[in-house]
Amino acid sequence: MNLKFIFRLLLLVLIISNISSYAQEAKFKIGPYANGMTNIKDGFFEIGTIFHKSNMEIKPYLRIPISNKEKAITQIDRNSNTFKGVLSYSYILDITEETGPIKRIFISGQFEFGTKEYKFYPDSTNSSETKSNQISFAGELKIGCYKTNGEEYAKQIAPEFRVRYSKEYKSSDEVGIVMNNSNGISTVNELIITEPDAKPTLSPAISLNFYSGKGDFSYTPAMYYNFIGKAGENNPFNGNSRLRVETWVFYYPVVSAKTGIKIGLSPFVSLRTTGDDSLNKFEYGGMLQLLISTNMLHFF
């Protein structure tokens, strides 16, 4: 990915955010949004803006893959090697009564779309190079609630549930092709000889966001279960599946009414429960996240 292009996107978001500060009568408040997540094997970076009204939020943004590695795609949720445009809409319902704690419910939907060109060599020769443009997409539905007493040092809790369906195209594996040159010397050339394929994935997930009311840290355990179907099909239940557990600790160096920054760190474990895939049965590692947003206690 061209770094100049990324810097231009950052500049565009900052310009939009500054322009919004002069629009005193604007129906929507506008703020920046940026999110980066990575581990040793893969990751992504998101950048966009948030249009916020009293009871709704619209968030258009771009998701940019950090690396082209595809083998660890189940280890970071939403990871892909495809550049994507994403549109998210959230509706917030305030159910706070005249007396008692502050309570809110939110429902959110999200759609992702991206395309990428893949190369493969069906005749096992460099001259048979074939290009294929494939579309990857995903959709999410999320529901959660928020509760606090609204007092100084009051505890805050926000459980969330999310279900995600996706079809992400990936390149096929390279194979070694033995070739003989005019001098009779054999060489091995690594080529991709089959076209890319996409496996459908259904991923329900739950999280529990908790803030004690004191200090600059919050805590979020999360659990995912991925159903991964066979290539070329739409049914996610006829392949393999994996369970992943994360335990996040978030630090808040900056929090304001307009936006905030949080830095998260979590170990993860990923266990293949059925079928077979290219990963080990038991995978583990660490994850790092940097988020700039207005919704500090939301996780998904």
Describe this structure in words.
By secondary structure, this protein is mainly beta. The protein has one domain (about 5-20, about 25-295): monomeric porin ompg (Porin, Beta Barrel), CATH 2.40.160. It has one helix at about 5-20; strands at about 30-40, 45-55, 55-65, 85-95, 100-120, 130-150, 155-170, 175-180, 185-190, 195-210, 215-230, 240-255, 260-275, 280-295. The two termini are about 25 Å apart. Residues about 15-25 have low confidence and may be disordered.
Strand residue percentage? over 45%
Question: What is the terminal-to-terminal distance?
Answer: 25 Å
CATH architecture verdict: Beta Barrel
* CATH C-level category: Mainly Beta
Low-confidence region ranges: 14-25
Beta strand count: 14
The sequence of SSEs as H and E is HEEEEEEEEEEEEEE
CATH superfamily: monomeric porin ompg
Overall body shape: elongated
Total count of domains: 1
For the biggest β-sheet, the strand order reads 1-2-3-4-5-6-7-10-11-12-13-14
Please give the radius of gyration in angstroms. 22 Å
What percentage of residues falls in helices of 4 or more residues? under 10%
The overall pLDDT, averaged over residues, is 82
As for the CATH topology, it is Porin
